[in-house]
Structure formats: structure tokens, C-alpha cells
Amino acid sequence: xTVSRRIAGQLAAVGVITMxxxxxxxxxxxxxxxxxxxxxxxASVSTVAQLGASKTWAAGxxxxxxxxxxxxxxxxxxxxxxxxxxxxxxxxxxxxxxxxDSRINDMTTAADGSAFFVGDQRxxxxxxxxxxxxxxxxxxxxDTGLPSGTVNATLESVSSVSGRDAWAVGQGYTEDTFTQIxxxxxWDGRRWRSVQxxxxxxxxxxxxxxxxxxDVWVVGVDNETGQSVAVHWxxxxxxxxxxxxxxxxxxxxxxxxxxxxxxxxxxxxRDTEKQRPAGLALxxxxxxxxxxxxxxxxxxxQAATLRPNGGLAVVGGKDDAVVGLTWTPAEGWRSLGxxxxxxxxxxxxxxxxxxxxxxxxxxxxYRSSGDxxxxxxxxxxxx
Length: 383
Hints:
Mean pLDDT: 89
Low-confidence stretches: 1-24
Shape: globular
Order of helices and strands: EEEEEEEEEEEEEEEEEEEEEEEEEEEEE
Number of helices: 0
Helix content: under 10%
Largest sheet: 5 strands, mixed
């Protein structure tokens, strides 16, 4: 059972500060103590989210193999840690989860205590899995607002400012020609509606961040040019903002923002087709995107989270190593010291969340093979 792993990067945010964006970046070890690992068995962890100061969620997919024919199906899975109730990780019951053949790809929380997660379209061409946190429990619902004729749709990211206002992005395929198309969905508190971003026909959309109903960022890649995409919604229109171009390609995979003038985007770039993708970090100051140097050797950033005092943390990596960095205005980049684990079971990470000085990272250990890697066990790291 082979599970493909996202290769990407994400956006982070920093306070209103002066940043040094030239010269050589270095990453010295960061403090914070040792990491504690919690195994999630056959469930790989693709997203982590923080609700308030004490409650953390980790969500992903249990891969279930049919012993008779070797086929697999995905069962959405959520774990919860509540510091006010002992602080142990416990699997959360998701009523109706067994009826879905879907992953959980991303999760978001809002200040009003609401939360959403998103997944994949039903194999029969129905709606896309959406989880809504209502009155203290998760409800599995369907986004049935996809464009007519969309099949094999996946929502990769979701962001909300309340239980009545959320955005989700991803991609699907046309039923007749099986051409890939971007998918943008908006939740108005009653139902999901499909939204079209002008000029986005050939884009791959990987992440959305909503700061306010009139302040929404979507990032990804322009598949026609191979260059990164960052587009902004101001409540009236979508505007593509220029991002640095690279000789071969660049991709943005996530976006986080502290204020409208303090937005970060991270991902990867290449100067040649055969180059190992290098980590990419961009900062938006309200007017333009600026590339921020990363420590030498940083590659394939996949996720980011805001930290106190204008800081952020990013994680990512590839088969042979993980990447974990934290950044502050005063100290620049420092290593998070993520564990590498047993070389026979390398670690992959794809998500990170912050609460004060505490961090949670989600991922998995896998058995490396020529066609990707098969999951050994999912993992949640906390410190």
C-alpha cells in the first residue's frame, strides 16, 4: 500500500518588523527541550491544528488494505489532545467515517471555537468530505457545490474566520476529458458554493488563508509556466500578485498571515530540471513579495505556523531527511532539531501548529521503496 507524499512548502507570517533579506542565512539549534513522539498506528498524520491554548487536533488517514485483493481504502481519522484533561492524545470518534473512502487533507480553527477539515470526493462522483466542528463534536458532511461534471476532486486546504465563513481550495477533473481543473469553494454558513478565479484554468491550488471576509490569499503553481502563484481576494475581485520567477520552476504550498501587511509563503524552487528542489520562503509587506534567504541545504518546505513575537516555524523535507526550522526577528533561522528516527523507517513531516512556546508536528514513518514509500506508522511530535 503506497501512499504518495505531498512535496511542497507553505506560507508563514511575521509581525510588523524590519527583516534582513540579503546575505547568508544560518540555522543554529533552537532551544525548547526534547521532542515527544506519539504513534498513531496505521494512520498517517497530514494536518495539525490548535483550538485555543489547550486543545490540539491531529488528523489524517488510516490506510486499510483488503487482504483478498490488495486494494486499499482511506478512513478519515482525528486525534485530540486537551491539556485541560490530562494532555494525552486520544482518537476522536468520527460518526460515519467508515462510509467514506477519503483522506483528511487539512484542518482549520477559528476564534469563535468552530473548525473545519476537508478531504476527497466520493468515488461515485458525489460530494467532497467536509468535517464541521459544531457544539463540541465533529459532523461529517458533504460539499455538493462542485462544478457540474467534476470527478476525483480533492480539497487540499481550508481556512475560516468563523463557522459562517470559510474557504477551501484544491483540484478535480472534468468527467468528459479528464482535464485537471482548479476547485475553489466558499462556505456562507449554509452551503458550499463554487467560485471561479479569473485566469486560473491551468493553476494548481494548494493552500488558502482567510484573514477576513475581504482578505483571502490562495497560493499554488501556474502549470502552464511552472512558476508560483499567489492571488488575493479583497471582497470584490481576485488579483494575482507577482512572485519571484526561477529559471525552471517554483511552487507555493501553504500560506499563513498575521496581518494584511505581514504574510509569508513557503515552498520550493528549481533553477534546473534536475536540481534538488530548494526551499523557498517569500514575505508580503502589503505591496510586494520578497524572497527571504533560507539556510544552505534547506529543501521542500511543506508547512508553516505563526509563533510568538513575530516568529514562525516551518517543516518539510524529502525521503532522505526532514526539515524543521524556526525563525525570529532577533535570531533569524534556527533548527528545530526534529528527530530522524530509525534509518530503516525514515520520517516524513507535512504539518505544524503552535500554541505559545509549544509546537506540534504531524507526519509518519515509512519504508522507503522505488515507487515512493509505504507507511510504517503515523506520528505526532510535541514539545
